[in-house]
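Known limitations

Structure tokens in this collection are predictions and should be treated as such. Users comparing against experimental data should check residue numbering before alignment. To illustrate the layout, the record for NAD-dependent protein deacetylase is reproduced below. The input appears on top and the generated tokens appear beneath it.
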Amino acid sequence: MDLEKVQKLQEIVDGSSNIVFFGGAGVSTESGIPDFRSQDGLYHMKYKYPPETIISHSFFQANPEEFYRFYKDKMLVLDAQPNAAHKKLAKMEQAGKLRAVVTQNIDGLHQKAGSQNVYELHGSIMRNYCTRCGAFYDAEYVKNADGIPRCSKCGGIIKPDVVLYEEGLDERILTASIRAISEADVLIIGGTSLVVYPAAGLIDYFSGRCLVLINKGATGRETRADLVIRDPIGEVFSRITV
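Generated tokens:
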């Protein structure tokens, strides 16, 4: 742990009341949720079909049973708990320092930690809707359903409110995220390698005072950053006081 860099992050946090946090899978791996691209991630698991095929819109429509077999097994993680990063970000919001969290994650852990203003670019496993009548169902209903979860009202297939491959991002969420980032004084990016577009392109809307990157691996935007920390994000945030 580079304590000198952590101290610099502390000074940045202390000096701003208009921070936006943009996070990826690395924020949740410390809560036990696998990411997609690491050596132990979902892309390296052996299934009948590649994960990126299974979690696509066309596959969901053509083979919902196989989709849900994978989704329930590997993506519908309901017992995960917020880690130090989630908790500290919630405290920063409560202290009036953090304006918004923009996340690529679908696990709902930011809200579970107490964050209020969260923009979920890729949706959430916590929200599920009938594809026929639009009725809402929680994650437990989907998890406990035998095979394909079906609507108790009309019998339609239930779909997670998660952005699958081949689907576009929610324009309202995208617009709100762009606005928050473009108006921020400080942008802290954590737990993402900034390779998934269009989400990774959101950094281009930032024109504020200070850009911070926190990620265990290298990212493609480090030359532009004012501070780069190559340590686990939960450990970094556990050392920040608000």
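For this record: Residues 1-33+82-122+163-242 form a domain with the Rossmann fold fold (CATH 3.40.50.1220). The beta strands are 19-23, 98-103, 118-120, 123-130, 136-137, 158-162, 186-190, 210-214, 227-229. Please report discrepancies through the issue tracker.
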